[in-house]
Amino acid sequence: MATNGDLGDLTERVRAFAVERSWEQFHTPKNLSMALAGEVGELLAELQWLTPEQSLAVMEDPELGPRVRAEIGDVMIYLTRLADVLDIDLAEAARDKLADSARRYTVEAAHGSAAKIRP
Amino acid sequence: MATNGDLGDLTERVRAFAVERSWEQFHTPKNLSMALAGEVGELLAELQWLTPEQSLAVMEDPELGPRVRAEIGDVMIYLTRLADVLDIDLAEAARDKLADSARRYTVEAAHGSAAKIRP
Amino acid sequence: MATNGDLGDLTERVRAFAVERSWEQFHTPKNLSMALAGEVGELLAELQWLTPEQSLAVMEDPELGPRVRAEIGDVMIYLTRLADVLDIDLAEAARDKLADSARRYTVEAAHGSAAKIRP
Amino acid sequence: MATNGDLGDLTERVRAFAVERSWEQFHTPKNLSMALAGEVGELLAELQWLTPEQSLAVMEDPELGPRVRAEIGDVMIYLTRLADVLDIDLAEAARDKLADSARRYTVEAAHGSAAKIRP
To answer: Which CDD domains match (chains A, B, C, D) (predicted)?
Structure first.
């Protein structure tokens, strides 16, 4: 699904990339969800031995920073492609889920509580 | 990082959601990458026993469809928050990675080849 | 935790491997769970574009087969290390969960039903 | 593949559990790898907001401890089932990979270096 703005533009670029290579045949939601998980796994591998504090400064590292950015780019590419194949508007799905979470985790109840973080 | 358009708007909504609940303290890149992986795991769980063909029709299922959409919303929320904390422009990172992949997987070489699919 | 049999032996080998390299400092449950997820991501990447039927024959492929076996070895290494650090007996934890699942998914109710598969 | 000892026993229990419910049809390597990733995602979700230090004491928590143990049991169940379906001996695959890693990360070179941790 093409949306307006930067997400719509990205959706069209990723789709064109797949179509030009005749990869639509492989891009079922099942396969794309596995590819998405694979890329998230690569992202975790970059951060796994860092402390939470070190992870906050990871973009300042001349080696790790670009690698983390590239992995996040990969994750976004597959998420965009998956949403396109399922005809889901990514931003809208996220906004709807956020509104749902806002009802479940009110500001009062959730304030500062780690146990309640499930946006 | 706030970007223009729908991604910028979503980034600000997700940030406000966290700030209002004083959750910034938990939102290190390391923690957020784990939360992202957790949500991707929930997405996989919805698709794991479907055939690739069944997964293509998942949005037509009145029970599974909304669940898949909600999981994708969750994944997008954490990815947006992670990018915000790292000051990465999600759409730009994806476009850059796509351009890089276009150089590595030319249309001629990659046409229809599953082994070469690594966008 | 060392158990008897092949799991106990493996637990000790993996522990010695870490101790010899002074890696205990990095092997917190949080870090190890990320490493585990990273290796599972690599496993998914080997299988993502295969059909379920192709995945059944993956060990016959002279290139893919050894790669899949190596990824499964990596997953098992990190899972064993994680259980050791948490003092959990892997086989016992699995048997207990299986007994729990047997109560929740009786043979009669679950027979052949994909929707109910959550062992 | 049944192996001797506790792993062999577990393999047979998990296989019987699946066979009794006629779930072999769903247990392709592709599907099982997704189920494995889903369970690892649930494990990550239990640990995501903890500091590495808190994660070291997670088994002392009367609520979190049993949940973490159950998730690890689930991960082990699916890993065992996946190895069985692929006719891979889990302990042997892990030992072989560990021997391979020992050659790549010598004690001298890797001592205390996080960057080199990839057992």
So the answer is: NTP-PPase_RS21-C6_like (cd11537)
C72, C119: one domain: no
> Do D37 and D63 have their domain in common?
yes
Asked if C29 and C74 sit in the same domain, the reply is: yes
**CATH number for the domain including B82?**
1.10.287.1080
- Total count of domains within chain D: 2
Q: Tell me what pLDDT residue D112 has.
A: 62
Residues A84 and A106 reside in one and the same domain = no
The pTM assigned to this predicted structure is 0.93
Please tell me whether residues C8 and C51 are part of one structural domain. Answer: yes
Q: How many Å lie between the alpha carbon of B70 and the closest alpha carbon of chain D?
A: 16
- Give the domain range for residue B72: 4-88
Residue of A39, A97, A104 to mutate, testing the B interface (most B Cβ within 10 Å of its Cβ): A97
Neighbors of chain B with 3 or more C-beta pairs under 8 Å: A, C, D
Q: Would the CB atoms of A38 and C39 count as touching at under 8 Å?
A: no
Q: Residue B52 and residue C49: Cβ atoms within 8 Å?
A: no
The yes-or-no verdict on residue A114 having pLDDT over 80 is: no
pLDDT of D108: 80
pLDDT for the residue numbered C115: 54
Q: What pLDDT, on a 0 to 100 scale, did the predictor assign at position A109?
A: 79
Nearest chain A CA: its distance from D114 CA (Å): 6
For residues B29 and B49, state if they share a domain.
yes
D58 lies within 8 A of chain B by CB: no
User: Is A56's Cβ below 8 Å from some Cβ in D?
Assistant: no
* Three-state SS annotation for chain B: CCCCHHHHHHHHHHHHHHHHCCCHHHCCHHHHHHHHHHHHHHHHHHHCCCCHHHHHCHHHCCCHHHHHHHHHHHHHHHHHHHHHHCCCCHHHHHHHHHHHHHHHCCHHHHCCCHHHCCC
